[in-house]
Amino acid sequence: MEKDMAGAGSAPKAAIKSGAHPEAADFPLREARKLVRDLWQPNVRLYWTDFTVSNIFGWGAVAVATVAPLGSFLQIVAVIVATLALYRAVIFIHELAHFRKGTFTWFRRYWNATCGMAMMVPAYTYADVHIDHHKPQVYGTKEDGEYLPFAVDEPWKMIAFVLQAFLVPILLVIRYTILMPLTLINKRFRDYIWERASSLVIDYAYLRPAPKKGQGKDWLIEDVITGLYAYTALALVYFGILPLAFLAVWYVVTFAIFVLNGLRTLAAHAYRNGGRERMSQQEEFLDSVDVPGNRYITPLWAPVGLRFHATHHLFPGMPYHQLEKAHERLKAELPDNRLYLAATRKNLFAAVAQLWREAKAAKQAR
Predict the structure, then answer these.
(1) How far apart are CA 262 and CA 211, in angstroms?
(2) Taking a C-beta distance cutoff of 8 angstroms, is the pair 290, 310 a contact?
(3) For tag attachment on the chain, is the N or C end more exposed, with fewer CB atoms within 10 Å?
(4) Neighbours of 11 (CB within 10 A)
(5) Is-contact 51 41, C-beta < 8 A?
(6) Dihedrals φ, ψ of 207, to 5°?
């Protein structure tokens, strides 16, 4: 059946204009669920090991890049290793968002203390925001902070989206060294910052709902500790304990991580829902993208299972280490796998190129 899908990635004009996926009703969701019902158990040891190894390699490479001669081969290699390893470590925030409440508590704390807060992306900045992204009443609508209709918008916005990574490290520093202390003084200002500047999203018009009962205290604690990390790093540099090069390396690595994640984000969905209508789970799947690619190379830019992003949207709670198995099983065992394979792209370039072509076509049609 795979041969029948040579042009499956191309959307019909009607789908591109309205964001609708009329074929979605035929997707064999019940059969798909049956095929993967044994793949829901997380491997706790793998989570701890994978994250710890990635984190150690990442921060170790940051240390090497900091002390290496400026522009040397060693420094360049160290920056690349730091970027890829810390990118993988940071992306575990996606798994944290999907853990059931009350589970993996110490892993969450460990991730925050050794990675999230040091990179100035504490866990709370993604948790509820991402779960909303998976809700049928939210996905693809204006309430979804992780969605913009790139496929029916101006193509240049995709370029701007990736290039804004230059500013992200600076904005993070401002957020936790200047704005955070002010939120401790004025509750109204704190509520404003939580609403408008405390979420890892791609739609900057997104307004985050107020914290639920008991969350406000946790958010504030994470904010304060993240700020303390930033102040400590700046103080260590000021007093000559850390070289100034450390801040430069941190900036370059953080910038590179957000560039990689920006490209991955463009390849994560079809982004055709220009009308921002509600979608069924089947439509949500067909508006998402799998890029199986090479099992060793593709995870460098789509780590921790995110190369199977469409499959993840079918089964949001499935552990990252089971998604490849789910993908292979569905591809091989669904009675008719054509709609399932319609969400697959060959590689990163093919996924982004298709998004670009659809945006250009939409522009010409206007």
Answers:
(1) 27
(2) yes
(3) C
(4) 20
(5) no
(6) -110, 115
H helices of the chain, in order, are: 13-18, 29-35, 44-67, 73-98, 105-111, 127-133, 156-163, 168-174, 180-185, 187-196, 215-238, 244-266, 281-286, 298-301, 309-314, 323-333, 338-341, 348-365
For 139-164, the pLDDT digits (tens) are 999 999 999 999 999 999 999 999 99
Say what the pLDDT of residue 366 is: 82
Distance CA 340, CA 318 (A): 17
Residue 67 to residue 102: CA distance in whole angstroms = 41
Taking CB atoms within 8 Å and a gap of at least 24, the contacts of 118-123 are 118/59, 118/229, 119/86, 119/90, 119/254, 119/257, 120/172, 120/173, 120/175, 120/176, 120/226, 120/229, 120/230, 121/90, 121/93, 121/172, 121/200, 122/222, 122/223, 122/225, 122/226, 123/93, 123/96, 123/222
pTM recorded for the entire structure: 0.92
Q: What is the mean pLDDT of residues 165-182?
A: 97
- Three-state secondary-structure class, residue 290: strand
pLDDT at residue 7 is higher than 60: no
DSSP 269-282: B----TT-----HH
Who's near 65: CB < 8 A, 6+ residues apart? 75, 78, 79, 82, 245, 249, 253
Q: What is the rounded average pLDDT of the residues 78-101?
A: 97
- Check pLDDT > 50 for residue 219: yes
pLDDT of residue 21: 63
Q: How far apart are CA 262 and CA 257, in angstroms?
A: 8
Q: Provide the pLDDT confidence category of residue 14 given band limits of 50, 70 and 90.
A: very low
Domain boundaries, the chain: 13-365
pLDDT single digits (tens) 304-335: 999 999 999 999 999 999 999 999 999 999 98
- Measured distance CA(218)–CA(107) in Å, rounded: 16
